[in-house]
Amino acid sequence: MRMHDTSRPARPAGGRGVGLGLALLSAFAFGGSGPAAKPLIEAGLDPLHVTWLRVAGAALVTLPLAWRYRALLRRRPGLLAGFGLLAVAGVQACYFAAISRIPVGVALLIEYLAPALVLGWVRFVQRRPVTRAAALGVVLAVGGLACVVEVWAGLRFDLLGLVLALGAACCQVGYFVLSDHGTDGGGHAGEHGARTGEEVPDPLGVIAYGLLAGALVLTVVTRPWRMEWSVLAADARMDGAPVPALLLLGWIVLVTTVAAYLTGVVAVRRLSPQVAGVVACLEAVIATVLAWFLLGEHLSTPQLLGGAVVLAGALIAQSSAPARAAAEPVAAGPGTAAGAPPATGAGPSGTAGETGVAAGTPRT
After folding, report:
1. Which of 82, 91, 270, 290 could serve as 15's disulfide partner, Cβ 3.0–4.6 Å?
2. In 3-state terms, what secondary structure has residue 327?
3. First to last CA, the chain
């Protein structure tokens, strides 16, 4: 969840326009991962192998950041492991496996159940209050999702694909919970830092080590030496048109992962977490539109309307965070977008929140 950090410096003056532009760029980049990955999967690569290629490639690119923030290995090993296992490996693996069986837009919209699941955890497990607006947002998101999957038609989509997409949402929830309890003292970032003298970790370092941890885990799980490497030397088909597989892979690694995370981090430092989170909701729209034009995945009118309701619910939940007293956090709508990394700083599917810990919702 996005917790306010009173210890952070003021945002750069005049940087709101730049921040908004970077947030839109980040949402576009994250939204382009599914439409680029699906042709590789259809060409013969296992979804887990595509996930490994994405995460391992991004980890190599961000190695300089990992070296710069190497002190994090000693100070926050639990946070780094949690980010790698859940926000990186878990979310990406479940998402790519899901889009191999169901449309990209549907898979991403299902991840927007993460706010509902987080609020359920907060309300019934932690027994903390939630705002009425956040609850309303959850109800809208769940109702819209019922339209997206067309429950009246007996779940016309592949059941395993729906379960995998829900697994991506659950990985986001796990990271939200981990962040709330293991990064900044459960929402008292400013007070915690003042109380312990411990510096809040830079989100760039968390992202870099999260990618490294995720790559190590995925290497063991996916055994990439068994991958069909020949697929990368040939063309993949994008709605019938040939596209070099290496070009798609380069897009996935450099644009939809490295550039997406870094622009998201910079954007949230120039915007409020609520504004950045609302912009991140456009990720699902962008992914659906790109899948429509690039992959020929057309959604019905009820599904499009349901998607709009899901996004409206996510927006309401995201923007409902109330002002808090310094001594007692009140749970409200968590950030969305899947995706993805997220983080308590800023989802999973990307952006850093005000605690500066990681990237909102783990992004996809």
Report:
1. 270
2. coil
3. 18
Amino acid 40 reads: L
Burial (CB count <10 Å: 0-12, 13-18, 19+), residue 102: buried
Please report, as a single letter, which amino acid is at residue 92: Q
Scan for tokens 């949230």, then name that residue: 268
Instruction: Specify the amino acid at residue 318.
Output: Q
Pull the structure tokens for residue 348. Answer: 């999973």
How far apart are the C-alpha atoms of 129 and 124, rounded to whole Å?
9
Q: Distance (Å, rounded) from C-alpha 69 to C-alpha 31?
A: 28
> DSSP string of 61-87?
HTHHHHHHTTTHHHH-HHHHHHIIIII
- In angstroms, how far apart are the furthest CA atoms of the chain? 59
- Which two tokens mark 151? 């429950």
DSSP H helical ranges for the chain: 16-31, 33-42, 47-61, 63-68, 72-75, 77-82, 91-99, 104-110, 114-120, 132-148, 159-182, 189-196, 203-222, 245-250, 260-270, 273-280, 282-290, 301-318
Nearest partner of 277 among 335, 332, 333, 334, judged by Cα:
335
- From the CB of residue 257, how many other CB atoms can be counted at a distance below 10 Å? 28
Per-residue pLDDT of the chain (364 residues; tens, 9 = 90+): 232 333 344 555 456 778 788 888 988 898 899 999 999 999 999 999 999 999 999 999 999 999 999 988 888 888 888 888 888 899 889 999 999 888 887 888 787 777 677 777 777 777 877 777 777 877 887 788 778 766 666 556 788 988 999 998 888 777 666 655 444 444 443 434 434 445 667 778 888 998 999 999 999 989 999 999 999 999 999 988 999 999 999 999 999 999 988 888 787 777 765 566 667 667 777 888 888 888 888 778 888 888 888 778 777 766 665 444 333 333 333 333 333 333 333 344 333 333 333 344 556 7
Residue 163, CA distances (Å) to 62, 337, 363 in order: 32, 18, 18
